[in-house]
Write a structure and sequence with these properties.
single chain, alpha/beta, Enolase-like, domain 1, TIM Barrel, 2 domains, 7-stranded parallel beta sheet, 3-stranded antiparallel beta sheet, about 40% helix, about 20% strand
Length: about 375
């Protein structure tokens, strides 16, 4: 089986959230690139570059396609490691390697006629706990909008949330206080994400202020995020009782934070460098006794399915995970989207990702 053609299809999708904040009536728009990797056996590997923040004009996407084709065409997905090494010799925008890597894995699993999770050793769970993302509040209308979103998700049986905080701590406290008054501990506050807004002392103060709302962890507490000095994370960890987590953008970052005992939780994901480094990140976390969850950049069903198969195979997955895109976006391009049930992502059936494109929907959402 050899690859014969690479398609990169630019599409848009509309988020459930507002463009500038939770209460903004104008919806945010995300751009994605659907990857189709054709082979001489008729098998087509599907991938997704999710929520990209780089230019996807016809000219730039054509240049990207040519650069990727030079690495991929004429090679077999069974040479997966060699292809990943070759991809690693170049600089790529965020999500590019991820989208290609998903397509390669999908083609390989389809050729073997197995679900994708079999390539990672098989499932240890059929469904994955997840939490729904809520944007930070900048005014009282945002507080009300977020509370309404929580209510709607509770009605669907989804009880865990992840809340971005730090724009206005008074409003954060108002939102979380009302949340607890209305629903008590029915709502699991899985994570508070500071997105690197704070200097060390301010991070400590903010976490101590919000700790009574009982988050499972606080992510990215210090300015610089995963590039911040490990000593900054250590200072925060020593001063607070809430576990501290950070996004792991590379194995080098994982190793640096692990060596310094800087964080309690790794937020691991395939969106940075693809599936293989993410698997290694889970192994490194297990070796150092660091807890884990799987992050998200808000994917459609193809990207979410890839993450679901991987999460199903990781025995050291600790906390509810973040892939909630099929609930966030109004449109879909898969014939059957990834399913959510009672606060869990249901792992799709195979072979491969277990996803098929809806050609009519895909045509409607194409950017050009």
């Amino acid at each position: 089986m050899k690859t014969t053609e690479l398609e990169l299809i630019p599409i848009y999708s509309t988020r459930e959230m507002g463009r500038t904040g939770p209460a903004d009536p104008e919806r945010a728009i995300s751009h994605h690139v659907i990857v189709r990797l054709h082979t001489d056996t008729g098998i087509v590997g599907l991938g997704e570059m999710s929520d990209v923040d780089w230019d996807i004009s016809p000219a730039s996407l054509g240049q990207l396609q040519a650069k990727l084709a030079a690495v991929l065409l004429g090679r077999t997905p069974f040479d997966l490691t060699a292809i990943q090494v070759a991809l690693g010799q170049h600089q790529w925008d965020h999500q590019v390697v991820c989208g290609v890597d998903i397509a390669l894995h999908d083609a390989l699993a389809k050729a073997l006629d197995v679900p994708l999770h079999q390539l990672f050793g098989g499932k240890v769970r059929d469904r994955i706990p997840f939490c729904y993302p809520l944007a930070r509040c900048s005014n009282m209308a945002d507080v009300d909008a977020n509370l309404e979103r929580v209510r709607r998700r509770l009605d669907q049986g989804h009880t865990a949330i992840r809340y971005y905080f730090g724009a206005d701590l008074d409003l954060d406290e108002r939102f979380l206080t009302t949340l607890r008054q209305r629903w008590g501990n029915t709502v699991l506050l899985n994570a508070l994400d500071a997105s690197g807004l704070f200097e060390v002392e301010d991070a400590i103060s903010a976490i101590q202020r919000l700790a009574p709302f009982q988050p499972n962890l606080v992510e990215s507490p210090v300015r610089g995020r995963h590039d911040a000095p490990p000593e900054d994370f250590v200072a925060v960890r020593r001063a607070v009782e809430v576990p501290i987590g950070e996004h792991i953008a590379s194995l080098a970052i994982a190793a640096r934070l692990a060596r310094h005992d800087a964080v309690d939780v790794f937020n691991l994901g395939i969106g940075y460098d693809g599936i293989a480094p993410c698997l290694k990140g889970f192994g490194l976390a297990e070796a150092f006794g660091i807890k884990t969850l799987h992050g998200s950049t808000v994917e459609l069903s193809i990207g979410t399915a890839a993450r679901a198969h991987l999460m199903a195979s990781m025995p050291n997955l600790t906390f509810p995970c973040y892939p909630a895109g099929p609930l966030v976006y109004q449109e879909r391009v898969a014939q059957e989207p990834v399913r959510y049930q009672e606060g869990h992502i249901i792992v799709p059936d195979g072979p491969g990702l277990g996803m098929e494109l809806d050609e009519e929907r895909l045509a409607t959402q194409r950017l050009w």
